[in-house]
From TrEMBL:
SUPFAM superfamilies recorded: D-aminoacid aminotransferase-like PLP-dependent enzymes (SSF56752)
Single Gene Ontology MF annotation: transaminase activity
GO cellular component assignments: cytosol
Organism from which the protein derives: Waterburya agarophytonicola KI4
Matching InterPro entries: Aminotrans_IV, Aminotransferase-like, BCAT-like_C, BCAT-like_N, Class-IV_PLP-Dep_Aminotrnsfr
Keyword Chaperone: no
Gene3D superfamilies according to UniProt: 3.30.470.10, D-amino Acid Aminotransferase, subunit A, domain 2
Pfam families: Aminotran_4 (PF01063)
Keyword tags: Aminotransferase, Transferase
Name of the protein in its database record: Aminotransferase class IV
Keyword set includes Transferase: yes
GO biological process: carboxylic acid biosynthetic process
Taxonomic path: Bacteria, Bacillati, Cyanobacteriota, Cyanophyceae, Pleurocapsales
Family assignment from sequence similarity: Belongs to the class-IV pyridoxal-phosphate-dependent aminotransferase family.
Amino acid sequence: MYWYDGKLIDSKQILLDADAPELCYGASIFTTMRVYQKSLDCHLTYWQAHCDRLNNSLKAFNWLQPDWEKLKQGALHLSSHFTILRMAIFPDGKEWITGRNLPEDLKQRQSVGITAWVATDSLYKRELAQHKTGNYLGSYLARQAALKLNAQEAILIDRHGNWLETSTGNLWGWQDGCWYTPNLDSGILSGIQRTHLLNFLRNNNIPVKENIWTQDFVSTLEAISYSNCVVETIPIRKVLYLDNWIDYPINCLETNIKGLR
């Protein structure tokens, strides 16, 4: 079941023209939203923030605007069936919404953490990183490579080796009573959950800084985690960098990370 161009469709197939740019070039933008309490109006769903993300990319690419009422109508239909909605817009303004449910092991990941792999090959670079485009091949390949190494996430880097973000979310680090996250000038996506967490920390007078995650800085972190709108915040307990595993104890995050959920 999915929503496409104003219609709810009960099928696993979608009909596109053979020369459609979204098919040939991955020309689409999208946002992935977790619907809380089956309501788009719940403050944790961030409905308007997701629409703003789409709108900002549409304006940047000079694409046609969708029928925003159709988009919301489709999201309302699917939110009664799914917890997670992926809302995409094509260059011609047509909307496409698919749904899925939360990972079955999400609570376990939040509790015991995951392992990650640093994707050092330039093959895994994400183009137009400030936008969520349908051409997400770099992140997809990085995560697939990580899974083959028994890691659940990949950490993307720039040409200087600085850590940027994971294949699906934003990075957070903990050191000496302060939270850190890579700044936007590094060339990363301004995650909606990232923005929420920054506002939460600042509003509650919890120290937080945006900086560049050089190799020297990463080596000083006491613990790290990553965030996105679906999983909220998940600790990373081990990182495979080149041929070495780096351990990041999650016990120091047990108290502090709860405030980020």
